[in-house]
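Hi Y.,

Following your request, here is the sequence exactly as I used it, all 222 residues.
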Amino acid sequence: MSSIHIFRDRPDAGEKLARVILSNFCHEKLTRDWPLNPIVYALPRGGLPVAVPVARRLGCPLSVVVAKKITLPSNPELALGAITADGCIVWSKQKPRSLRVQYALIEKAQEKALSQLEKLSAGKAEISSLDRLVILVDDGIATGMTMIAAVKSIQLQKPNAVWICVPVAPPELLQPLRKCCDRLIVLETPNPFLSVSRFYNEFAQVETEVALACLQQQGEWL
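Below is the corresponding structure, written out as tokens. Let me know if you'd prefer a different format.
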């Protein structure tokens, strides 16, 4: 099936997402009796170019929460689950029955998450999410596994609220995503969905150097 280009590239999607988030944020400031004190977390690496315009508009810190898909070597595209660098796990209905297989797959995925976190540690903000509004951003959601794992990780830090904010996601995931966060913002929910990349004109892999540069940009507005 042909692609449907809704966004030019990730920064374009980030600008459009930032406008909607800012509108929600301003409304929330008028109705909450606690300071929102936002912090933006991106799921690297693809979420970082989307998150930069969001953090810039809010004038807040930008950090990362790293989650990796748990997959079988024979089928790396099929997400059996996801795990964050700090060990928060989410499984799909296809979870392996064997504990030995589970542990092996978990170990491999977490190693990848820890490695990526280490590579990005020089640029990310080292700020606690305690009592803050956390805005989780990615370039899109396909299965929801990594995003839900990321929410679980952030919730351990006891924020006041967690918002999931993405440019595009499948319509069937909206309900489960709403259940795990305080607010869900999704710009587009095309059907059929198939893959996130279909909805971008440019969707090249974000290299580590580019991801680090995204994090280091926050010096411009902080």
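The chain has one domain: 10-66+116-217.

Thanks again,
Q.
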